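Fill-in record for Flagellar motor switch protein FliM.
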Amino acid sequence: MSKVLSQQEIDLLMESVKSGEIDTELVEEAEHVKIKTYDFRRPARLSKEYMTTLTMLLEEYAKIASNLITTQVRSNVTLRVASIEQISFDEFLHSVPYFTLMGLFRSEPQEGMQIVEINSQVCLQLLQLLCGGPDTRLSDTGNSKDSFTDIEIAILEEVVGNFGHALQLAFRDIVELNVKMEAMETNAQLLQTMSPNEPVIMTTFIIELLEDQTFINLCIPYVFFESMLEKLSFRNWFHSGRTTDPSDKDNLTKNLQSVPVGVEVLLGKTIVSMDSFLQLELGDIITLDKPTHEPLVMSIENLPSYLVKPGVLGNKMAVEVLHYIGGDME
């Protein structure tokens, strides 16, 4: 209950207002109630805490997708998160251009269908690289199209599939997903995968390819996250209370033992003139700088590790390990 002012307190307050000691405008601003606009047609299903964790997962998704596409097209591709919005499926459809490419995915055991929308400019640039074209910006070549051929869609299918595989890898710490691509579409108006008012999370990525920038959209329905909301909690993500399991070290050691490593032995080096190199013929003998009585250096993953002695074992060449040098050439 508010305190009732006495007449003396009222008089002092009025005198303070008249003398300017109290700014009435500041009092009015303090009493003004701040109203936040809320659209009930677009309810925010995921709280700020969940969105923070989801942002981290989508940034990881961008890194994984960048690596997969870079490896496939053999050209540097970079993705980064531009924005994450909670909108309706109808709004997503209206944001998609007429000429585009979309991959539709199912991620068991989660509900709903995920959609990756790739800008046509990116698709045409990827086609140019995958078909052995020059590493030049598409805008510099003057090519323009308004539809994809069946062959082009078949070539791009593996690229689109990598975006689905990246989703599976990005969420592996939250839930084990089995992501499968169900279809590819080029017309957003033909999509009938969910209700127009269905809430979705639309993530826009900026993709950089050959010094050109454009956008890729990832649309995930809210039902996809319903069964994993507890795992998206910021508190559970960083404070799960899980203690270190002694078997983790043994499992890690066991897994590392099966990792293949490259081993090579350098017999020696020499320097020849260009004239001598051009006159090399079958049967010529080249003298190396390594004396026959000195041990050779065996490198593991390009790191000098052991001194070894060459020999023969059965019908194959072999080396005998003499001394561990631990990366020290001396």
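KEY FINDING: The chain has a mean pLDDT of 80.
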